[in-house]
Amino acid sequence: MPGRRTHKRNNHPADFAAPPLNTISTGYPFHVSQLQQMLYPGAVQNGMFQYVSQTPPVRYVFTQRNYSSAFGNVPVDHPQGNRTTFSSRNQMDRMRHESSRGMIVNQNPFQEQNSVPVTAVANSKVSICNEEGVWTKKNLYAMVKAFVDDPNAEEMSFPPTLSAAERHMVHEIALNFNLHHRSAGCKSERVLTLKKIGSIKNQEKDREIAALNGDRVKTIDGYQGAQRLPDEYIKSRMNEISLLLGPFLRKMYSQLKATAAKPLRNRHLVVVQPGLKKAPQGNAQNQRYRELQEFRRSLPSYKRRDEIINALKQNNVLIVSGDTGCGKTTQIPQILYDSEVFQKDLEIICTQPRRISALSVAQRVAEERGETCGNSCGYIIRFDNMTSPSTKIVYMTTGILLRRLHTDPQLNGVSCIIVDEVHERDVETDFCLLLLRDRLIEQQRNNQLYKNHVKVVVMSATVQIEKVASYFVCVCGGKAPPIISIPGTLFPVEECFLEEALKWTHLPPSAVPAISMLANVSEKKSKNHNSEDGNDSSIFEKIKATVFGETDNDPEVLVPYDLIFKLISYIHASSHDLSESILVFLPGWASISRVNTMIQRSPIARELSVLQLHSSLTAAEQQRVFYRPPKRFRKIVLSTNIAEASVTIDDIVYVIDSCLTKGTSYDARGNTSVLKATFISKANGMQRRGRAGRCRAGVCVHLLPRSAYEKLPEFLLPEIMRSSLEDVCLQVKALKPDEVCAKVLSRAMDPPPADSTEHAVRFLKDMGAFTSEKEQMTNLGRALSKLPIHPLLGKMLLAAACLGVLEPVVTIAAYLSGKSPFIKPLPHQKNAMRNAVQSIDNGLLSDHLSVMKLFDEWKKSNCSADYAMQNFADQTVLRSMDRIRKQLLRLVKDSSLLRKVEDPMRMASRHSSNLGLIRLVALWSLYPRIASVEYRANRNRKRPEIFCWDNKVAQCAMGSALAFKNRDDFRDRAFVFYHERMYLEANLTVFDASAVTPVEVALCLREFALRPLTDVPPAFLTDDESKMAPAFPFVLEREEEAKDLAVLFFDGDKKLYVTSLPVGLLLRDVRECMDYYLALSIKEVRADLFPEDLIRVLAYVVGYPFSDEVSAIDNNTSDKPVVTYGEEESLEPTTIDCGSAQLNDISGDEDDAPEIFMEDFEDLQMTEEEIQRAITVFGELAILNRQGGLRLLGAFEKGVQLRQVEADLIRGPEGDFVSEEREQKLRDEDAKKSDECDDEEDEDDDIIIAKAGELDIDDNEY
Predict the structure, then answer these.
(1) Under DSSP, is residue 992 helix (H, G, I), strand (E, B) or coil?
(2) Name one Pfam family in it (predicted).
(3) What string of DSSP letters covers 1062-1089?
């Protein structure tokens, strides 16, 4: 076993302690010395950390050297840090470690002027920072993000004081922000510079310009030279595949040409969500009805009914600002319906942001009207329609309204739309307001085009009302719409804070982990927003706010579990009335489960009825929170923010508010997400407080100090500003097909960042929903817009039905639409859980297939909780998956996709036991979320590195089946596809991943091009700049000739693979057939149009041929485990009569395969007009885009020709003349290259930090 490797540095002399980081474009210097003061002494002043002052602080002392010429003079203010204590055991080790960076001297009054004190803190993460130096990856990430977020900064330089490991971290972070990053200089003068590149379009143009100039600009930092395609299995099956494929190729060409001559005909996917055929019968008891009518008349909203009616008669828009408890959600729709302001046969729609709100409010209104839900009042939520022909008051989620606009853009039969809970500012609500405002404007301009004139009522809590009113000025004749403010009827609610909670429970402040975030709130509150002042202080404050203003810790870690449990116990002991229930707001499902477990294991569990409330539960399970608890029990409701609005639980008296919310924040510049723990806003706190006191006086305990609570923001940033917009942009094009997405979204109340829209549109182009040039919707995009799920999952369902693997893929889609069924293990359970996951995976290296197998075995065990526990799975999540799975199956079954099939479910799932087809469908659906698996070139390191397709360095989640796998495990699987990615502790992590081969990826790419090896310039065949080695090195064998080989280009030149010309052509043809017949099936909305024998071809190509027992094939590895899944019998695929050819008597020799030439089928004999018509009908088919992936190669070749012409002109008739200017330019370029050192120095050594006795080096990794 190799010994521990440590990083050695030379002492870097300096004339000051910490040089700055320059921001060239603004002239604002980023000072390392300032950041040191910020990280430690500033933190002490803010009370974030506690120090132990025992021994004098250790100081760095550097000898004098002048860096001012490179970085400028920096005045250094010496922070007076508190002293720190080293344990006697580790003190000398730490002193020796620090001495590698500079001389250590004791504190004395004659200390050198340029010394900088090093302070240590009790926090474990920051202590690591002290041992390594100033920087941690988290700090460096924050610094780079601050630079990226500064619109005035274009370039930033890090000083030479960074270690090689620190520079390596900056390089990785720069990749993830799409920055140009370069280290220049040698040894003690090595400087790392970051530059902003620009938009995606600008980057593509820059690469083409560079190619014209003879330079190949790398698109990913992985190896981009030519590699050998692992295709031995395909070579052994060439004859069988070719014979099966031939008829489909000929049919495809003839149909394409015929389609171009036919008139355009579009079919649309019809998704049916039927309601009740007739109104349900049932009347409420007279006594209950009278009580409810008396209660209605007591509500403030009911008392203002005349004012509401008159305002809406005179205006198209009305804004209602109502406090919690005023009854606006239940009463205003009834008031408008009963007042006969609108025709009785027209609907009044009221939108809700959550399903539980729409369901519970509709049931309450139906009860108030003395009816059963589904009569005059009903609801529509995803997968549940409780309306009938008699229903005229409809509560629905905002998403359902958006999808109704697809089929009925005129909103026929609708008189009024009420948008409720606008203050929450979720994405769909903001988009809905945009569409309604556009409708009102168009309605005023073209009055005669609309049969019924829709009116809009916007309802919100008493926040941001002025902003909402100003948004609708343009539809009210230039004046603000009327605003009706309605007070609430809450009983008095006493607000208590952390001080009281700690006093009641006798716990110290350290029992609240989120206390460390309090200083951040203060920093955000006092942050200087004027970034144009141009002084050093404003930049420093900006960096400081960036580094400490955001917390990306796991929200579940910040929950004060002990305090919450003891508060519940204290309230239960103090309150003698068991009917006084307790509502606890927690950030997520994991924290709900943990608090529930703590209660169940306590003695008071026998006196409490604990209920959970979150989005993963069924409607019936969610409804339980509204029922009274059993006698002699107190009800405890553990809820996420789902209970904040429009949910009234009558018996809630006590509210415990953790003041935390769990959210995924989208970073538009980096096109990544971050899981953040954030404090709620005051508006959220007001809503949570309002859950108490609905029926009697109540108490709300906010688990923050009173002073900190007062400093919370008034409201959070609108969700449209911090979310990815793929689904929104898809809806935009479905509803506004003639406008570009950016233009439509610019009309939102708060327009999203331009980068968010650009990334979303590019994503939809890559997945085939939009055309690449004009941003037009394809047939696939139109179909996906009709499905009430994310576009990726909708694409998965469509492909699964065509390839006959619907049931297992629906299981995967149900898993991806919710939470992972695997629990987060305790520290002592990690190894056992890892073994359980690996046992289920069985070498497949697939999270998707692992969860599918787990679910199937759980169902076979009769949904056993013991089975789930043994495999570290959550029984509740598995039940949720089962429910969603049934809903998705019903969605596909009831759609028009299977309308021509007698036995839809059997036909759509006939190949459910073929793992290769299942994985291929998942890969095709989740593209472009793929990544390459890379290995270091100059090390014998077996652990792979993952580079996402947009050139971001990532790692697999700790619970993934791919985690901790080495090169031998991956074998020929050189790619990974995944469902989502996000930053966890400054590390980009991919979730729900599977490993696949280059052959599988070739079938699913957006661009796939093929060229003979002899036609490819050497610059594209090698990659001398990369630090990565080829996974499958290409060397021309003795028996091979270059003219017989082809180069496969993956998405431009991101990856290049060399294979024989017949294999390359075969792969291209299989890909084009698969692409065409999927497009045909989606265009005609018929899954049965995908040929059965083409499915057999795909099974051959991916290595899972049809057989009695579906097994993975690997001709080269006899000990590879045979994987068998499922018990369903695969239907015997039909065969095509190929004359005298016998498929069962085929030689495995490639030489016996049919001879194929490069020019075969190259000429489609279609005019440009016919090709454009075919694109309009089918979308951008692979066969119509064969040269799309060769743009860079074409630019390179064109540049070679232009330079040859230029050289001929310069050479003249003598052939030996070169201008002095050109010669000098060449000399200057050579000198510049010689001045720059290779970036490899940044990564020469691995730095391993571990405590004594804890170092464990894995032989498999090094």
Answers:
(1) strand
(2) WHD_HA2
(3) HHHHHHHHHHHHHHHHHHHHHHHT-GGG
Chain centroid to CA 444:
40
Helix H or strand E segment including 411: none
Element (H, E) at 653: strand 652-657
- Rounded CA separation 894/872 (Å): 35
CA distance 663 to 660: 10
Taking the C-alpha atoms of residue 842 and residue 861, their distance in angstroms, rounded to an integer, is 20
Distance, CA of 97 to CA of 1247 (rounded, Å): 12
Positive or negative, the CA dihedral 850, 856, 857, 858 is positive
What b/e string do you get for 788-827 counting C-beta neighbours within 10 Å, with b at 16 or more?
bbbbbbbbbbbbbbbbbbbbbbbbbbbbbbbbbbbbbbee
* One-letter identity of residue 256: L
Cα–Cα distance, 1258 to 278 (Å, whole number): 68
1010 forms bridges with which residues in the sheet? 1048
Please name the residues in contact with 323: beta carbons below 8 A apart, sequence gap of 6 or more.
Answer: 461, 462, 486, 487, 488, 490, 690
d(CA 782, CA 798): 12
Sheet holding 581-585, edge to edge: 493-496, 698-702, 652-657, 581-585, 634-639, 608-613
Strands 945-948 and 953-956: antiparallel
| CA distances for 1212 relative to 1198, 1208, 1218, angstroms | 21, 6, 9
What is the CA 445 to chain-centroid distance, rounded? 40
Buried b (16+ CB within 10 A) or exposed e, 890-902: ebbbbbbbbeebe
Helix H, strand E, coil C: the string for 115-144 is CEEECCCCCHHHHHHHHHCCCCHHHHHHHH
Give the CA angle between residues 701, 706, 709 to the nearest 5°: 85
The Cα 512–Cα 450 span in angstroms is 58
CA distance 704 to 809: 45
* DSSP states along 378-393: EEEETTEEE--TT--E
Half-sphere exposure of 410 (CA within 13 A, CB side): 9
pTM score over 0.85: no
- H or E element, residue 848: helix 847-860
Would you say residue 1209 has pLDDT above 80? no
CA 880 to chain CA centroid, Å, is: 21
Phi and psi (nearest 5°) for 1223? -65, -40
Provide the 10 A C-beta neighbour count for residue 708: 20
pLDDT at 177: 76
Task: Give me the amino acid identity at 60.
Answer: Y
Question: Which amino acid, 517?
Answer: M
Q: Rounded to an integer, what distance in angstroms lies between the CA atom of residue 629 and that of residue 570?
A: 20
Helix or strand holding residue 377 (H, E): strand 377-381
* Separation between Cα atoms, residue 433 and residue 398, nearest integer Å: 10
What confidence category does residue 200 fall into, taking pLDDT thresholds of 50, 70 and 90? low
* pLDDT tens digit sequence for 529-541: 444 444 443 332 3
The SS3 call for residue 687 is helix
Cα(19)–Cα(188) distance, integer angstroms: 13
The answer, yes or no, to whether residue 1239 has pLDDT greater than 70, is: no
Q: Which residue has the higher pLDDT, 162 or 334?
A: 334
d(CA 409, CA 1097): 43
CA–CA distance, 884 with 879 (Å, rounded to integer) = 9
CB atoms within 10 A of CB 209: 13
Q: Is 1235 exposed, middle or buried (0-12, 13-18, 19+ CB in 10 A)?
A: exposed
By residue count, the chain amounts to: 1262
Residues 1134 and 1093 sit within 8 Å (Cβ to Cβ): yes
